[in-house]
Amino acid sequence: MQNSITPQAPPLKLLIVGGGTAGWLSALMLAWHFRQQPWVHIELVEAPDIATIGVGEGSTPALTRLFRQLEIAEADWMPACQATYKNGIQFSDWSTIPGYQHYFHPFPSSEDNAVLPEFFRQVRAAQQGQPNDAHPDSFFLQHQLAITGKAPFCADHQIQLQYGYHFDAGLLGQCLKKIAIQRGVAYRPFKVTDVQCFADGAIAQLHTAEGATLAADFYVDCTGFASKLMRQTLGSKFHRYQQMLPNNAALTIATQAESHPLSQTTATALRHGWCWQIPLQHRTGNGYVFSQDFISADIAETELRQHLGLSEQEGSSRLLKFESGRLQQHWQHNCVAVGLSQGFIEPLEATALYLVQQTVSHFLLHWQQSQYQCRGELVARSDYNLLINNYFDRVADYIVLHYKTNSRSDSDYWQHNRKLEFISPELRQLLQCWQSGGDLPALLAAKQLEKYYHAVSWYCLLAGTGYLPERGRLPEYSRQQLPAAQQRLQRWQQLAAWCPEQLAHLRQLAASNRLVTP
Ligand SMILES: Cc1cc2nc3c(=O)[nH]c(=O)nc-3n(C[C@H](O)[C@H](O)[C@H](O)COP(=O)(O)OP(=O)(O)OC[C@H]3O[C@@H](n4cnc5c(N)ncnc54)[C@H](O)[C@@H]3O)c2cc1C
Q: A Pfam family this protein belongs to (predicted)?
């Protein structure tokens, strides 16, 4: 075995430790990348007695694109994972400003091209204090699909819609495992107990509780929060987001499935945090995300039960603790960390699997450059770590903005979040630009920040919560009377009528299912 990855000298062995969603997605991405190189052996080991985290039920459109690229058809996994469609996220009660208590954050569609110039113009005017219809809800088709529970397919109208998924995380893990094994990934139910390193610090071999010794050319740490290889063994430092994102716990309770589920995630602000509601085919996932620095788990449970209308006896709760932050180095020596082992930004906007994808795909790119394009591995590693840190930090900026712009005053929690001073220089500049009536899309483009969140997303959040000069806010009633808003709504309703109801569409998909359910 070499102590660094050397694709020129087959065979090559890549060892993934951890079989959660991050582990199996990594396995599938690696298997796909090396599909023409049969000398590359991919193996995954997973501790049989350490459960996966079992949450993480929402995605962004990046997962949809990845599954297409990996040739994993919706019929192959959606029915098996009780999955539903996600057209975006409904934010409720983050703002107390009349007419701005709710807004929808849509995923993009080809119809956006027709409305974006108007949306941008009106938001800019409102931002500068001229009364205007700057609320996003009437501008985007996806909102109409979400609230009518439609699947994102307007085939008759040639409209391209981007969408994400909701799924049962445990079932998705099993399904991905099955597909990965079919595609040649070797699987061993082994628990890594000890890691030995070479003198230069690279990983030499792993010992397992079952008595096996495993060695590879490269290791992928997908051991979840344990971060067995990267933090525990290689000592990669952790950069905490605690000062800007104080949430550190989530309490989950599942409720019955809806008979007509909306095709959206709902993120409702409660007194000391926010609650997700994710409609699946067989149940609705609910979770209250809060900070134990502000309330106890008992108080959180009482609040969540009240919100869901559940008595103390109904539904069992589960408490999960987490730390928001990321590694300073995601790739060290012959090891890369992927998933919770590399960090976690709290679940608002459901970005964790998106970051898994970015981590793996950029790793392959950088590693290949270092091997084939005479680029030193040290340089590639350092560039890569900087890039992935940027992904985490810029996504975190967008999450922080939800808290920073809240207008609630019902608890210390919300006031504390509004007054947060520990925000990044990038977010500070964005906020200054917005508050001074400046050109936010131009700033995002100049700073190359659009690849993390597009201007539409920033505008939806800032305008949707009414974070505008008071005179720029047009009352809800007046907005609804505007002929342009009525015309748009009419068009969205017509188009939504052309889209299939999602449960009916999913039943059809199940009927065409090619894979045996896990
Ligand atoms: C409250 C909450 C809500 C979330 N919501 C979302 C969401 O909506 N959308 C989203 O994209 N993400 C979400 N996430 C994140 C998401 O759950 C994870 O990113 C995803 O499940 C991947 O987890 P993982 O595979 O990194 O870790 P895990 O699921 O914890 O898997 C770890 C694996 O490592 C194995 N392991 C551990 N130690 C060893 C060892 N010593 N030897 C061998 N194997 C070992 C375990 O057996 C397990 O298989 C959420 C997370 C939390 C906490």
A: Trp_halogenase
